[in-house]
Amino acid sequence: MNMDLSLIICTRDRCKQLARCLHSLRALAFERPWELIVVDNGSTDRTSAVVKEFIDNSGLKAVYLFEPNRGKSTALNTALRTAQGRILAFTDDDCYPAPDFLARVWSAFADAALGYISGRILLHDPADYPIAINDSTTALTFAARSFIYAGAVEGANMAFRREVLVQIGGFDPSFGPGAPFNAAEDVEVAARASAIGWKGEYRPEVMVSHHHGRKESDVARMWKAYGIGAGAYHMKLLLHAREFSWFLRSVYQVRRRIKLNVTWVLWEPVGAAKYAYLYVTGRCANE
Fold first, then answer.
1. Does residue 55 sit within a domain?
2. Between helices 219-239 and 262-280, what is the axis angle to 10°?
């Protein structure tokens, strides 16, 4: 049976977080046909057992996939080849979607011109450091063929039309956890969707809670990863000549990023230089 929606979660060696995430999915209320796809990106812990136990006992249509080649984007592309949904929603293994998450995602795509969305990400535990969230209540529209700034789309809460991801060839394996650039897989794939003419939106009514468990001591490492990923993303815009004006926009917006976090900006040149090196040596995608 064809599915209206597929919910995709990629995980690696985080079976405890994943178990809590999967438990939260039991509260999802969505009356249309949908499926859950969990991609195990080479875990060596009890991840497979946790997923299989959930599949046996939840009553939900779910698929477990094992992708041994490391990299979140590689694992997401594995899911893309299996997913049957017309709409593909994504969240992380340490997130808890709101009960109406799938219904809200589905409603958003009533607009035929909409190719992708990102949603609100709340801090689940007040004891965690307030990072990797977006609690804005202001809706945004990203016009087709427009520059998508780093942070505009977040992988913990995003969705795409399946046809969009197929058209652009899926996710870039150079980006995301486990890849040469440990971030920016989300904004990079949204940028390619924008480049071929799809509109995007930030929809604050589409919500997940992020139970990331990170404390203040973890923050510098995270901003470093974000900065390197953003720098690589901006260099890709330049080297692939997708829209030179987009690269100029990224340079102009450095002031906004400095206000957000200086560490992020200081690491961007490192990511840009690394991407340029891998590109000229043929170790990054050339689409």
1. yes
2. 40
Q: In sequence order, what are the beta bridge partners of 90? A: 8, 158
Same domain assignment for residues 213 and 268: no
Number of domains in the chain: 2
Q: Are residues 93 and 150 in the same domain?
A: yes
Residue 286: inside a domain, yes or no?
A: no
| Cα–Cα dist 178/156, whole Å | 16
The pLDDT assigned to 159 comes to 98
| 99 within some domain | yes
Q: Which regions of the chain are under pLDDT 50?
A: none
Domain membership of residue 266 as a residue range: 218-279
pLDDT at 230: 96
Find out whether 65 and 12 touch, Cβ atoms under 8 Å: no
199-256: pLDDT as tens digits: 999 999 999 999 999 999 999 999 999 999 999 999 999 888 666 788 888 888 888 8
Does the residue 248 lie in any domain?
yes
